[in-house]
């Protein structure tokens, strides 16, 4: 193991002895037993080999566990270093040379660490065995990686092992006879951050709902934190954000996720965000190289990124140069002759007659081979032909003028998918608007040519000069110079085309000929909720602009929005999409506007336009953090920055279009298409800084809102070729002083100069961190709303109800972790009402019932849970929500005796009890259920009570008290009654009053059997049992309408007619009133059902045993011999 040369011999010179010495090196070993023992203890605790020998210079550089191992390093030094040291004159030069050589070896060793781990899988297999033995997870819980570290408990560190699996963070420590196990699901983590404490400067802190845990002393903390961040992000988005999250193909199956997959995902996400490429792009290679940059006449050092459809380059110096080469534009990729000045060069030629020279590429041959293979595949999927016939017509446009980069003219690139594509486009063209709306709807009152139009001409000249030097297609060199031109404002005639290039929507447009026209044909004329929302917002889209005061503009807007909703039904249509699309139609053709909208919604602003606008809320949180970093004085004065973050939501959703005059906001959109969301962040900071003094003096949030609204409403654009449009969104009182005007160009320039240092990597890291908080915030909101709805309807204490919710949600999550893949949306749908977002199936309910139900019946518990689930599953979708679950438990714990008996009664009649019930085939009679038993126990004949007369009176009283609006429950058959009695016997097992309860229930069941037989004989002979005061037996068979088990709408449930068949005349039956009255005659039974039950102890026990119950069940199922055969 190589070690950086620094300090002296470990343990001091006196603790080491020299084994051998040569020139500048010596071999050292521990001098005494105690030093050796201490090294062994520390190494054993870290599960690492003991390094007993060192090679010194005399500072430690190389360490080994045995003399043989250290001799191998010594031989390497003799062969590679010793013969070169003779050229140095003094020891300092020798030490400097050796240090540099060893540091290079360490860097090489670190870069190959992943490959080394894969070459030596024995250590990982050993860690996997320990992980499985220590935590007893099912096989589906895949271990991703593991690290040695310390977990801090107060000021005391516990040395141990951190295991990172696909669903959990686990820590294990065994030190001085004390064992510590810690399991934290990723979905419970609310904050993941790097912090410092009094003892350590770098710590990873995990924050859950109730606790904070610190982990430190990692060998490579950066690597650990990135892996943890990736696992938390993937798991949270997979389980909590299934509405808008698309997993990478390599992560579709969680059980197959590896450390390399996570590292690749992080690299892919950075690559796509940096170059703003489609989500489908997969990165294949990242190579250090240099690119010839003709504008600087030198090679620029940087990195090449090769993906499925692109070759990209980014300079090492931020902002110096960036190039995007779609394979669609590439003509050839060739190797050049290798020379000392141009090592390992390749030439990439593109259709705009430009050539890009890359040099210093490692493994050039295999790279070129793979690039040519992908180039061939892209051209096969999307055939390209080069059309020069339109050059004559396009020379008037700067986009089709002479390119000095290659001294050639170039025409328009067209993608051909079939021979009839041109004819199809001609057929589609009449119904699509052929040009940008601004060209056909020039605003009235335009400035005279000698005022603002010359400014446009100056801009055009600057842009034309830039195109000549840097290129004009998507393959242009993107440098700091073009950013400055964009900040000044893009000329109106170039705006739409440059938006297409900067967003790379031009590639989508050229790759899908006729796609938009087909979408328009398929979607127009269809009526649904989305189209109704679109129609409602059409006339609210830039109403001040003449282009949308005419049916031409409205129709184009309708087609684009409807076509996109048809293309992406998951997003469909969201508010603010109409405002953005209106602006796109002003400066781009209709089909171009559609593809620009695709680029914004699916790449540039991910997760913005969905039901919960998660992406916008994440960026709100990022913006709040940037305020604290960049504007500390404002953040210190305004302790609660949530108000500013809320105000900024419309800034992100509409790119300032809804709160700034249109002619100024369009310059903001220019910067957004070039720099992405970074431009919106820095402009927002510039706005706050310009108003910091007024914001600090504002008394409340409404005054702060007024300050910002007045400022934004008075932003002008001196370079706009048209007159300013009237604003309709500002509001301020007449007695206020007029707000000074601010030029948008000055504001954008200030934003770049003061706040433009944020990199894409920093923003993506902050997004990842805040996405965890936003998703957990949504979970907390869901939880609070569910509890607010449920609390008034149950008697369970709020804190206990919160614990029940956590158990319910955790049960759902555990099934998502380890059971067979199933559509998560069926059980977790964020778009549903809060109370219905989490639902569980019968197996999950059975486990929860076993954990928290007070009615534990031994082996009978599982059967009772099945019946309870069938009763609660009113809509028969095999899922129940939290409200139904808690309402049932509330009756069991807090209900009165008659409510508990009614629940038990309903659990033993259809639909809860079915013909195929597993426990319903027991004999009709057993020794405990006999009609020959006496009706009185423990009483003399003289004091005996006539139970039948007593029951008659009780039944009459119950009938009078019964609510007239309450529907009658069907009577219970003898088979159902037997099951009812069996449940009661099971409930009494191991009760302290078990014997008294058995005796009492024997009395009651004997009496009820006799009552049923009397009724059976009476009905057979035509009598109606009028002495007993019974209701007529031909009852209307329908379930009782209550708030727990039946929907609140009127009418029968869908299964009502088949669930409660009427009892045939002459059948043995008893009613709920019979059972309840009989049970009331026995005080021990009354005491059993009315005694207070402690739910807190059950909840504490459930929290401890929930995981073990699930894992034991999963482990039993994984053993074939223990599996039950299906019926």
UniProtKB/TrEMBL annotation:
Gene name of the encoded protein: TBC1D8
Biological process per Gene Ontology, one example term: system process
Name used for this protein in its record: TBC1 domain family member 8
Pfam families tied to this protein: GRAM, RabGAP-TBC
Span of domain EF-hand: 860-895
Keywords annotated in UniProt: Coiled coil, GTPase activation, Repeat
Region (Disordered): 1018-1061
PROSITE patterns assigned to the protein according to its UniProt record, in alphabetical order: EF_HAND_2 (PS50222), TBC_RABGAP (PS50086)
GO molecular function: calcium ion binding; GTPase activator activity
Source organism of this protein record: Neophocaena asiaeorientalis asiaeorientalis (Yangtze finless porpoise)
Record domain Rab-GAP TBC: where: 489-676
InterPro entries membership: EF-hand-dom_pair, EF_hand_dom, GRAM, PH-like_dom_sf, Rab-GAP-TBC_dom, Rab-GAP_TBC_sf, TBC1D8_PH-GRAM1, TBC1D8_PH-GRAM2
Coiled coil: 944-975
Function text: May act as a GTPase-activating protein for Rab family protein(s).
Biased composition (Low complexity): 1018-1027
